[in-house]
Description:
The protein contains 10 helices and 44 strands. It is α+β, with helices and mostly antiparallel strands. The strands form 12 sheets. A 6-stranded antiparallel sheet has the order 1-2-3-4-6-5, covered by helices on one side. Strands 21-22-23-24-28 form a 5-stranded mixed sheet, with no helix packed on it. It starts with 9 loop residues before the first strand and ends with a strand.
Amino acid sequence: MVPEDLIGQTLGHYKIKRQIGYGGMATVFLGEDIHLGREIALKVFWPRPGETQDFFRRFTREARVLAMLDHPNILPVYDYGEQGEVAFLITPYMAGGSLKEMLQKRKVLPPSEAIQLMRQVLPALQYAHDRNLIHRDIKPGNLLFKGDGSLVVADFGLVKVLEGDDREGVPLQTISETGQTLAGTPEYMSPEQINGHAVPASDIYSLAVVLYEMVTGTRPFFANNLLSILLKHANEAPRPPRELNPYISPQLESAILRALQKDPDKRFARPSDFQQALQQVSNPASNPGNTGLALSANAASNPAPTGGQAPKGAYGPTLNGPGAPTLANSQPGIDNAWPPAPTPIQRPISQPGTYLAPQPQAQPVFPPANQPLSQTMQAGQQAAQPMQSPQSWTPARTIAPPFVPQQPKGSRVPLAALLGLCVLLVGIIAALFITPLGSMLFGQHFSPPPTPSFAAGTSTGRGGHTSTPGITQSLTGTSTTCPANNTARPAITASLALGNDPTIAYIVDENDASGNPTYGTVKLFDTVNAQKTELAKTSQTRITEAQVSNDGQWVLFSALVAGRSELRLVRLDGEGLQTLLCAPSGLSIRYSQWSFDQRYVIFDEFPQNGEPTVYLLNIQNGALQVEVTPPASGGALIARTWLDYNRVLMVGLLPNSDASPSNIYILDIGNGANQRTANITPVFHSTQPCWDFDSSYDGQTLFIAQCTPDALTGSSIINKQAVTGSGTATVLNSATRAFSALRVIDATNTSLLAIAANTGTGNIGNQQNDGLYVVKTDGSNGIRLLTHTPVNATLGLNTFSQYFWSNLSRDNKMYTLATTKINGSSSEYILSFGQISGGAPSAFVDYTQYMAVAGWTTT
């Protein structure tokens, strides 16, 4: 009998409607309970020839064990039975879909959301482990959503039942075990599970792989064949998650890497310990000043590594609490309890995105920086996978016969592992010929998610070269000629090995006496040796915007080149200058924002008169589309910063008018092309012309400053609210300072970098309190002055982008500041940098031509 033969048939009092999933030994159908009139899921098992009698005996025993599970986050078993040559389990039908389907659509989840989901799964695993049950097949396809959005663990089809309360690990045979087989899904299997010795900590390892995938968009190990996957799990260290997603906090990374330890004794002892670690990550204020994790008892012998200050999306140490230091140079009227910014604790890493020098790794828990890393496959190499319905129970693979020698604790023994895996390979080859799984073993699950492509028919391949972190590669084939109108070319990229010196990227625009552009230059300033370097200098060019990439290797800039607006890219060694697109004649590229995963650039094309159009460019494949169509009249949208991988914070403004922007919107690129402004609901409306905002590191909160300039002192209020627009609360109310610009500067959202400027339309008030401040966000009105505004001058933060490295050095110790002085009919531009901990800033360039900061990197 084949699965299709059961459609329309009845098993017990359950009518089978259609197939919704399949596995190595089972098929899942959508069915109807004839007695109760409700939809259910039937998992039908197919015994192998000659094993029917023994299979039914083991199936009945295991089904009874599973039916006794009663936990809100474990998919319940309604019924089980046997009919003819098949056995079946009856469970609720979960129409909410699986975590696998969510990840296929959203690719990456915000860390806070991923933690919230994991904290629903871990108690379910603890409940099962307390009853001597090991799941052995934890993966996104086996985590299903209820109608209320909560997550449940499904498919205990490979469960290992430990006999009795002595916990000696003696397994009962289960329906999945016939002789010596390797049970599980290779992409999520622990090293000991590959060796055929699953323990409770094996589920913790598998769940850590799932969490890694949720917050980075890829699994820690992938390859194009089964043996390579198993070898990587057994021998390779996973790439630290923060190198893939800088919005992951050091604490969350520590928890994930600990749960991914090769030795199960070095992982969390119990799911509840993993749960406690994630609880501390999501509530850092519960442990003031602690940059690590208070984990289970064996944490002392296996300390988690600490990391440097994370970018947006991270969680870090709090800046207040018991024992917090005070400022030695505190000033009257300033909150003297305000502590100086903490010194980030650096961790050894050699990959771009962390900007630290390679160092030897002394801690045994986490892998050295120079250990082999899994290599990313081209998106075009992804094997095709069949679309599956919400309750698919993706296939668990059973491979026979396995034998991988168990390694002694504390020893890698790579040769022994290799010999054992070679034996396993022989078993795999045999399985291809003697089991029906042969056709299913290869071509599924082994490649990373494809690079998203947002237009039908566009290539998902990566443009140019594939970067290899930590190695400087040559660049060829770049061009500064313009592509055809309304088209773009993919970026040609290659990696650049970065140094350790905190370095500022900035732009200089030079004009002749008539104001015509002569040269536009992208430059670097090394704060350690005070060396200036030109990256790109082009004649008849004015650079209008510039920003540094997340990995610190590139500068993306918009420039008016010989009268035409272009979007360009240059590497930090001056190589690879290239033009990605050119605006049609009469249009200008403005308000470009490069996503922190470096896949997309969103920007506006402005006509000389009329409404701008919002475009989205996939720089990896050159696909270009209209993201928001221009309105017939009224407000238009301009990008301010990416909120996460899919959403962009936009502001509304009236083009060709003096009106200030007034609204904040969230644009979701997942909604596709040609969106309309009228269909995007604002999450904030300003009642003041003087206002500014930034988003929290985890993308959950907006901090909004609104100020009222005054002839005396000026005033302002800074509020915070959820990005959805709810839950407004005041964090600072100042009657003496008009804060007109702010940026979030630490992962715990306890401090802001803010500029007080008591000036406004038609008004210049008393400027004695004007300057650059650090502002506390705990509602205490605590502020700390970094520097006063000079006479006849204004201060400015980076106006091109808002990522933390736009204004702060990669180690979060220094800031940059732009000062503009008015000297009669001319202007003087000064760029400087200073210490967040305090002290006067140091100017590194002073010029009468326009200059602006693009961001921080290291060289």
